[in-house]
Amino acid sequence: MSAPSSSSAPIRILLVDDSELVRCGIRSVLADHTTPTLRVVGEASTVAGAVSECARLKPDIVLLDIRLPDGTGFDACRQMLQHNSKVRVIVLTSFSNDNFVYDAINAGAQGYLMKEIDPAGLVQAILDVAAGKSILGPDATARVMRLVRAQTTPDHSEGLASLSPQESRVLALVAEGKTNKEIGDLLTLSDNTVKNYLANVFEKLQVKRRSQAAAIYVQAQQTKPTEQN
Known about the structure:
Blueprint: E1 11-16, H1 20-31, E2 38-44, H2 47-57, E3 61-64, E4 67-68, E5 71-72, H3 73-83, E6 88-93, H4 98-107, E7 111-114, H5 119-130, E8 135-136, H6 138-151, H7 154-161, H8 165-175, H9 180-187, H10 191-205, H11 210-228
Parallel strand pairs: 1-2, 1-3, 3-6, 6-7, 7-8
Antiparallel strand pairs: 4-5
Helix pairs in contact: 2-3, 4-6, 6-11, 8-10, 8-11, 9-10
């Protein structure tokens, strides 16, 4: 679906953080936004609580910390997506670490933000992810690209080479952060056709999330000149 408009239903959000103070602060920030309304429908402080509340409440967005008393946010992310593949997860943490960013993307998160982000930035990230985009802060992007550069396998190269011209165009637009609707408008394709192309791209690249596919594409574009020399 496209981004919620001012007349659409509220964006329903689940907060997952073991700090009640942090949850209270985020809730206060989100309460000030009304176009569309950002409604906190539930809170959790553990992996188990996050998985349970996500299954029960079926939120649109989960704001998720990494360090939780009974496990990691990565565990929670995977389990939540197993029960509800439509939920979109944004990691919101105070930990800036190459492996954490990469693990978050592999777990299926659609965004990785630092808690130092300003309120307006957090709200915009939620709106963007709700609209189908993947969000990484500039620092997180640099970190994940270093790891993708080090860990990309020949399978990814083969997968990219096997893409049809139209699949490559769709992937390039995904890497630019375009939503399915925006891609469809640019390429004159229906939403279902875009989804079918993306499904083929994911299968060929052996990934499950658009953020993973985008990272592989960007890394391949960056290494092309080196490979040609």
